[in-house]
Amino acid sequence: MNMVKRWHAQGGYKEALNIGFPLVVSMISNTVMTFTDRIFLGNYSLEALAASLPANVMSFLFLSFFMGVSEYVNVFIAQYTGACRPADVGRALWQGIWFCVPSGLFLAALLFLAEPMFRLGGHPPAIQRLEVIYFQILTVGSLPCLLGLCLSNFFAGRGLTKPVMLISMGSIFINVPLDYCLINGIGPFPEMGIAGAGLATVIGFIVPVIVYGLLIFTKKNEAVYKVRTAWRFDRELFGRFLHFGLPGGVQFFLDMFAISFFVFIVGRFGPVELASTSAVFSIYNLAFLPTIGMHVAASIMVGLAMGDNNPNRAAFSTHSVLHLALAYMGVMAVVFWFMPEFLLNLFRPRDAAGADFDAVLIMGEVLMRYCSVFTLLDAVAIVYMGGLKGAGDTRFIMAVMGASSIVCIVIPLLVLNGLSVTSIHGPWIFLLVYVMILASTFTYRFTRGPWRRIDLIGRDKPERS
C-alpha cells in the first residue's frame, strides 16, 4: 500500500498520529520535566547530578511493576470500546483504582529501606546521602503517580489522547518553575537542593490526579460509562485484569531492574562514569520516552481492533505506528551522533566544579554514540512490544524480558565487576546486545502471530447492564 492510501486507511498513519501524537507530546512533557530537573541539579552540583540517576532509577524500579499492571487498564478499556461495550469501561477503570491504592501505600513504606539499600550500592558517602533523600521523597509520591496513570487510561484507552496531552503539558508549567525555585531557593522558596527536585516532582503527580477526577466522574460519563456506579470491586474482572496485567508489570519491572543494575555497576566505576551515564540517559530520554508514547498508541490501536475481532487491522495498525517511530528515532540518531557536545554541556555546573565536567564530557560523547546506534533497534522493540501487549500476549513479553535481562545485563556485569574490569565500554556493549535481542525476538513473535487468537475480554460474554 502506498503512503497516501496508508495515510487515510483505518489503522493507517493518520489514525496513528491522531492517537499517538498527543501521547508523544505527553511523553515529551514528562521528558522535559525530567531533563530540566537533571539540568538544574547538574547546575547545582555534580554530586546532586550523580545521585539523581541512581535514586530516580531505584524509585522507578519499585514503581515500575505497579505501573506496568495499572497501565493495562488501558488495553481493557480499548478492547471494551472496540467491542461496543461502554458500560464495562467504568468497571475496568475502577478495578485499576482498586489496584493502585494499596500499591501506592505499599510503595510509600519503602522509604524506611532507603539507607541500607543505597549503602549496598557502594557509592561515595556524600552521594549516598543525597540518593537517600531523593528516593524517600519520590517513593512517597508513588500513590498519586499511579492514580494519575490509571485515570488517564479512561481517555487514552478510548483513543481520546488529547486530554492526556493537555494535562501533561499543564504539569510542565507547575513542575519546571517549582523545580528551579525549590532547588536553588528562588524568591520565597527555601534552597532545598535535591530534596526540592523531589518535592516538585511529587506536586507534579498530584495536580493531574485532581484534574482527571474532575473530568472523569461527571454525570455525562456516568450515563454512558458507569464511572460512578461501577465503583464496586469485581472479582471476576479484577482476576482477568491481573491475569493479563501482572505479566506486564513483571516485564516492566525486569526491564527497569536491568537498567538499575546497569547504573549501580557503572556507579562503582567512579563518579565520572556515573555522572556521564546520568547525563546521557537523561538525553536519551528525549528519544526513548516519546517512542513510549507510540508504544502506548500501538497498544490502544491493537486493543480497539482486537475488541472488534479484527487481528488483520491490529497488525496493520502496529506497522503504521512502527513506520512513524522509526522516522522519529532516525532523526534522533543523527542528532545524538553529531551533537553530543552541545547536549552534554547543558549539564555543566555553574561553579568551579565546571572544570571537573570536562572528563564527563569526553566520556559522555562516546556514550552518546552508543545511543545513536541502538535508537532504531529500540524503536522496533518498543512498538512491537506495544502491539503484543494490546493483544494480551503479556506472558511471552515477560519471559523474554526476564531471560534477556539476566543473560545480557546481570550476568555479564557481575562477571565484569568480579574481574575488576572498569572500562565503560563493557556495560554499554552488553546494553546494545540486550536491545538487539529484544528487537529481533519481538519482531519474530509479532510476525508469527499467535497473539491473534487471544481473547482478553471474553468477546462472547454479554455486556453488563
From TrEMBL:
An example Gene Ontology molecular-function term: antiporter activity
Primary location class: membrane
Entry GO terms, CC: plasma membrane
GO biological process, one term: monoatomic ion transport
Membrane-topology descriptor: Multi-pass membrane protein
Pfam family, one: MatE
Keywords: Antiport, Cell membrane, Ion transport, Membrane, Transmembrane, Transmembrane helix, Transport
Transmembrane spans: 21-40, 60-80, 92-113, 133-156, 163-186, 192-217, 237-266, 286-307, 319-339, 359-384, 396-416, 428-447
Annotated localization: Cell membrane
InterPro entries the UniProt entry points to: MATE_fam (IPR002528), MATE_MdtK (IPR050222), MdtK-like (IPR048279)
Protein name: Multidrug-efflux transporter
Gene label: norM
